């Protein structure tokens, strides 16, 4: 079983072919190899909005802090018969310290302050 050290939520926008839509997203961080952290990013986007904008398999999440993170749909091409909400995910293992993690993902700072 995976042990997540931190979880946080944020509000941002998804960019598909230059068109934006507001979305909520969730972040979870767990310890990786050595001093690194593995961050999983998850959001749900409306299927019809994605299809109408020519979504293929990836888009860009614009986070609260303005970071642009590529997010992907692992289920292949979207069709009108698919679920109304489509899950898009990303994984980032570039954070090599807690300071790096909090700098890159300030959403974790907010969630930690709320639980303190």
Structure write-up:
This protein has 116 residues and is of the alpha+beta class. Helix content is 19%, strand content 47%. It contains three helices and six strands. The chain has a six-stranded antiparallel β-sheet with strand order 5-4-1-2-3-6.
Strand order of the largest sheet: 5-4-1-2-3-6
Q: Which outline best applies?
A: elongated
What level of helicity do the residues show? 10-25%
Mean pLDDT: 87
- Please indicate the percent range of residues in DSSP E strands (runs of 2 or more): over 45%
Number of helices: 3
**Rg from C-alpha positions?**
15 Å
Model regions low in confidence, pLDDT < 50 over at least 5 residues: none
* CA distance, first residue to last residue: 26 Å
Oligomer: single chain
Report the strand count. Answer: 6
| Biggest beta-sheet profile | 6 strands, antiparallel
Give me the secondary-structure category.
alpha+beta
Please trace the helix and strand order, writing H or E for each element. Answer: EEEHEEEHH
Keywords:
single chain, 116 residues, alpha+beta, six-stranded antiparallel sheet, 19% helix, 47% strand
Please summarize what this structure is:
The protein is an alpha+beta fold and 116 residues long. The chain contains 3 helices and 6 strands; from the N terminus they run βββαβββαα. A hairpin with a 5-residue loop joins strand 2 (19-31) and strand 3.
Topology:
Layout: E1 6-16, E2 19-31, E3 37-46, H1 47-52, E4 58-62, E5 68-72, E6 85-95, H2 98-104, H3 107-115
Antiparallel strand pairs: 1-2, 1-4, 2-3, 3-6, 4-5
């Amino acid at each position: 079983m995976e042990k997540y050290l931190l979880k946080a939520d944020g509000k941002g926008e998804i960019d598909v072919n230059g068109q934006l839509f507001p979305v909520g997203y969730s972040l979870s961080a767990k310890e990786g190899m050595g001093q690194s952290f593995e961050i999983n990013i998850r959001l749900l986007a409306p299927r019809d909005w994605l299809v109408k904008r020519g979504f293929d398999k990836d888009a860009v999440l614009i986070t609260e802090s303005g970071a642009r993170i590529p997010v992907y749909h692992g289920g292949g091409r979207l069709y009108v018969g698919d679920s109304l909400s489509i899950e898009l995910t990303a994984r980032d293992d570039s954070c090599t310290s807690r300071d790096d993690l909090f700098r890159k993902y300030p959403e974790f700072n907010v969630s930690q302050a709320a639980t303190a």
